[in-house]
Every structure is written in structure tokens, then in C-alpha cells.
């Protein structure tokens, strides 16, 4: 388990193989990959897109929760995938002769889904080869309005007890943004990607073995594109994911050390799960 910007993250991610990001503190996972064991406990899963390395574990996840007597899962998907997602489960019901109980939540950019603990989930568009949406987890905090901050504690308590509605203002804070698979363009397009406390971003390609042009044609981010935007990121921590399986652990670390300016490198953690 990683802890980044104070947020627990359990994750596996290798480009073209599997991606599943679990946030135990938010009781939410993004994508399921091939269905890692740690994700079985997660009732709410938001899918970015329907590529096999992000979604194929869904039937196993649903079946395993039923087998273990756990509550039916809730799956969040984009509108573009609703019909095919329903078909997928219909086919598996016919094949498996099981019910695969689950709840489908269909949302897109502009929508909002309430999470536990007063947080909420908002999708945003991520440009990729298949229809894809990233997600941001936001929290709402009430903060004393600037004009009241100089007041003594007793006076604030008195106003509060008197039910003064204008005492506090509500702030929305982006805690985590996960882009799924995406072109780097998402960084410029979506403010939340630059400002979330923790950003989880794919960087599939790292060096000249795959050019920037080829990376873009496949709908993915190249390290050079990330480095060129180093000044845009205001995030406290960045988890870099989805490295192509062609790179070893050592090669990834060297590429990041050489390729990223120190001010970005020092906040970036590569996800190196199971890599030799
Ligand atoms: Zn993809």
C-alpha cells in the first residue's frame, strides 16, 4: 500500500496488461484490470473506459462478491458504454446461469455522484482511442468567511448558536484525479488534473523506442510530453502509472530521473508493481 499526499492507494497498473487503482480511504476503486484480489472488497468501482486491460475483471469481481456473500457492487460507467456493458452481463448470465447482481450508475462530465464521508465524484473527458472519462474525488469543507476570522472564539460560538447562515462558506477541494488512459492534452483541458492534491496519471512511453508521435497515435502519454508541461502541475503528489511492459523497473527510474525536471520528479512516484 502506498501513501501519497496522505491518501492510501493500492494499485496495479501496466500498460496493455492491467490497471486497477483502489482508494480504501474513499471506499472507491478506479477500473478493475484483470480483477486483483484486493479489489474484491471494493463495492464501488468507477470505470474510465472499456479497454480489456481496464475492464475485463468486472465479471469475476461481480461473481466473487456474490460467492462470498458480499453486497452487490456498484459500477460507474460513461454513457457511451452503457448498452454494451449491459449486453456483456446478459451474455455472461446466459453462459454462467448466474444472476451477477450489481447496480449500474451511468454518469458523464457535468454529473456528480455522492460518495461516503461527504465527498463526491465528478467525471471529466479524457481524450483516448476509445471513449474515456477520468474522475475527480472532491470534498466539501466549510470554512469561516474571511470577514469573520478576526472575531474572538466566543463571538463566533455565539453567532453560530444564533444560526447565522453567512458565518461559513463552503469550499470544494479536489482530493484525487485519475485520468484513465489519455492524451497529455487532458492536463491543459481540465483544471482539476493540475490542482488535485493527488494526481494519478498514465505515462505509457518513456524513451525513443516509442516516439511521441506513436504515443499520441495510440492515445497515450509520452514522458517528453509530461516534462514539457512540468510547470503546470500544482499537485502535492503525482502517481505515474501504466508504463509499457517493455520497460524494466531500472529503466523507468532512470528515465524519470533524467527526463523530468527536479521540481516535478520530487513529487512523482512511479507505480512499479511486479516489475523486474
Ligand atoms: Zn486504453
| N-to-C span | 19 Å
Q: What is the top-level CATH class?
A: Alpha Beta
Could you give the count of β-strands?
14
CATH topology: Metallo-beta-lactamase, Chain A
Category from helices, strands and their pairing: alpha/beta
Task: Please give a structural write-up.
This protein starts with a strand and ends in a 6-residue tail after the last strand. The longest helix has 15 residues, at 82-96. 27% of the residues lie in helices and 28% in strands. It has one domain (2-270): 4-Layer Sandwich (Metallo-beta-lactamase, Chain A), CATH 3.60.15. The strands form two sheets. A seven-stranded mixed sheet has the order 1-2-3-4-5-6-7. It is globular and about 65 Å long. The chain is built from ten helices and 14 strands. With 276 residues, it is α/β, with parallel strands linked by helices. Zinc ion (ZN) binds next to loops.
Walk me through the topology.
Layout: E1 2-4, E2 7-14, E3 18-23, E4 28-30, E5 44-46, H1 52-55, H2 58-67, E6 74-77, H3 82-96, E7 103-106, E8 113-114, E9 119-125, E10 133-144, H4 153-161, E11 168-178, H5 185-189, H6 191-195, E12 198-202, H7 212-217, H8 223-228, E13 237-241, H9 249-259, H10 262-265, E14 268-270
Parallel strand pairs: 4-5, 5-6, 6-7, 11-12, 12-13, 13-14
Antiparallel strand pairs: 1-2, 2-3, 3-4, 8-9, 9-10, 10-11
The structure holds zinc ion.
Zinc ion binds next to loops.
